[in-house]
Amino acid sequence: MLIGKKFEVDEFSFITYFLLKKSRNIFRKWDENYLGCFAGFKSGTEMLFEDFLFKIKDFSDFTLLAEAVEVESGNIYSFTLANICDLPKALKWEVPVKVAIFADGVAEKVEEPSSPIEDSCVIRLLKLALKGHGKAIDRLEKVLNIDNASLLLKKVRRNPEEFFRSAILHISKDRYTVIGRAVSSAAVNLDNQELFSTVLETEGVNLAVLLKDKVSEGKRIKITGRMVGYYCG
């Protein structure tokens, strides 16, 4: 049996997870295994997802991966959904989730691209090709009339800010590179560490990110980090 104990601190909800198993010891009924703690960011970006595909991979490392489609924009996100104890029994309807990206390091300030890709079809194909979809790579080569897309993909992976005005790029599992403009930035405290809750305007979405440095409003930045989904029902 999986249980979660929750308490609130400022801008974060802390959830501690325990796995209870029937004990073989005659002197106690349950063995309690500590699975870890998750800090859910209350000011994350709330979205509605029309589909959830998730599973617990292994209780030893306790990761729950999810992929979902954001209803209004159609963007596909992969993230770690941490507080499964709060999820409803059956997911037969749209479920509100708050998502936020915990950045690995400081934000990199980047200039506007001189000749960004504007064609929505090319952008969609390029994103699929970056994930390694063979059919998307073939289609991209036909649309752009190039023999080998590998060189282009290598350049985009290295410097995506030179090709996209704004972007949410899935790079591996629940990790993303995000390019966008800062709308706001405010200090929050997590375990006596000052972080900055920053809202980025990117791909038509105001996405919440947690940074180690403050970013001025209107600045175009690039960050890489882990996306976390937090059920807010």
Summarize the SSE layout with pairings.
Blueprint (H helix, E strand, L loop, with lengths): L1 E8 L2 E11 L7 E12 L3 E5 L3 E4 L7 E6 L6 E6 L13 E9 L4 E2 L10 H11 L3 H11 L5 H9 L8 E6 L2 E16 L2 E10 L2 E7 L8 E12 L2
Parallel strand pairs: 7-14, 8-13
Antiparallel strand pairs: 1-2, 2-3, 4-8, 5-6, 6-7, 8-14, 9-14, 10-11, 11-12, 11-14, 12-13
Helix pairs in contact: 1-2
Q: How would you summarize this macromolecular structure in one to three sentences?
A:
With 233 residues, the chain is mostly beta strands.
Describe this structure in words.
With 233 residues, the chain is mainly β. Helix content is 13%, strand content 49%. The strands form two sheets. The protein has a five-stranded mixed beta barrel. Strand 5 (53-56) and strand 6 (64-69) form a beta hairpin. Helix 1 packs antiparallel against helix 2 (134-144). It is globular, with a radius of gyration of 20 Å. The mean pLDDT is 84.
